[in-house]
Amino acid sequence: MNNIFKTYRFWWLTLTALILTFFVAELFEKSMYIDGVWYATISRNLAEGQGSFWYPQFSETFFSSFHEHPPLLFGVESVFFRLLGDHWWTERLFTASLYLATATLIALYWRKIYHYRPALQWCFFLALIGWQFNRAGWYYHPANLLENLLIVFDLLAIGFLWKAAENRAPVRHTILAGACLFGAFLTKGFVGLFPLAFPAIYWLFFRSVSFSKMAGQTVLLAGVTALCFAGLFAIRPEALDSLSKYMDVQVLASLKGERRLYYYRDNRFYILGKLFYTLAPMMSLLFFNAFMSRFWKGQKVPWREIFQSREGRLAGVFFLTGMSASLPLMISPRQALPYLLPSLPFYSLALGVWTAFFLERWWPDFLEKQKRLARLAEVGALAAVLLSAGYCWSNFHHSNHRDAAVIHDSEVIGEVVGNNKIIGSNHYDMYISGYLMRYYGISLDTTHQANHDFLMVTKNQAPPEGAFSPVPLNTQLFDLYKKHTLAQRAEPGF
């Protein structure tokens, strides 16, 4: 292993710099993608006894019973809050744990692909570079999203199905895969069920079992998943009610085009364009290594040999698996870049394997013949690691430009209002609502604004009439007003 690491040291250093820059630095920030702030709030509330697993609660006034998504992520994350307490880093440690679990599973997949080629078993940095170095990974891996847990369940499911496809205890592994699909659905619904296509995809490339056995495995997989739900609904009738509400407010409404506030796209091919954009860095790495292999070795690129080899065919399996996770997203008009996250491990594995064919051909020879240039590249990569570490430190608990003003106002308002209060608001804003609820437990009431001691008003809006006076605060987006006491109202001139 030491010799292999020495040979590919530049690439390992590059991976380290990318993870520090595009994951750790983002994770260290006080800022977080607002969906992740809401999910952390719901999980914290669940840990503190506000709401229940099947009826989680965001706040007393907004989503007092939250059914926008199935509840499994909130239940799992609430365990972290129970064990570690309510800290700003609790959800970040949870996110880092899922990130590490996903990276480990990708590495295990890679080592299984190259089981017969020890020299390449430790080159899983190629898959991890592709998985991390893209806009979707940069923005959303640190964001505490549902997809982070969904990816783990789906990787486990396909890992079990892979063993079953190799005729290794197929029934047992298919049952385990069905249990993982059950967990995937309880995390984010139907989008987690794409591993149902894996037996057919694997059969197309390998034909290791008959068509009837492949079809039987698929039926067993779907049956086990359905049986898990039947057992759940029999034991927990409230689960059926909760998931029925999710189907109504999220799934059916999205398919009908009724949910137009966030992520609604008139063009159903929007997600396809985002997919090409996301895969561009991985494709660039592949073509760069193909070019260097052709240029350095002076040999024609053996594309046929690559695609006909065992590793190349497995790469094809995983590429189609990625497509089975991403292309069905076009069915719904609600489309967004983070929805591609579950497919990225499979695309990165496929493109990483194809890249490894070329890297293996030219890189060791390059190190041998261009030692000075290779050493310079390694020094540059090490410098990038050190700079990335410094960047992480500079980002520690800082707010980025995206929501710096909202975080500032939530802190200023939260310190004045106090914890676990309800205040009026003339405007619903998911950002200020999320941060106030996450760090101060403050609920916003837009229906009965004047019924509370404090009222928050968007800046440049007309001040409220009646028994409120402005609280002088150095805010940027919102103003705070306080209700007069009875004594103040009795004063002359009031």
Description:
With 494 residues, the protein is mostly helical. It folds into 2 domains: 32-369, no CATH class; 404-490, no CATH class. It is 65% helix and 4% strand. It has helices at 2-7, 9-28, 34-47, 72-84, 90-113, 118-121, 125-132, 135-140, 146-165, 170-188, 198-206, 211-235, 237-255, 270-297, 303-308, 310-326, 344-369, 371-395, 404-417, 430-440, 486-490; strands at residues 422-425, 443-445, 454-458, 468-471, 478-483. A 5-stranded mixed beta sheet has the order 2-1-3-5-4, covered by helices on one side. A hairpin with a 6-residue loop joins strand 4 and strand 5 (478-483). Helix 12 packs across helix 13 (237-255) and helix 14 runs parallel beside helix 17. The radius of gyration is 26 Å and the shape is globular.
Which terms would index this structure?
globular, 65% helix, five-stranded mixed β-sheet, mainly alpha, 5 strands, 494 residues
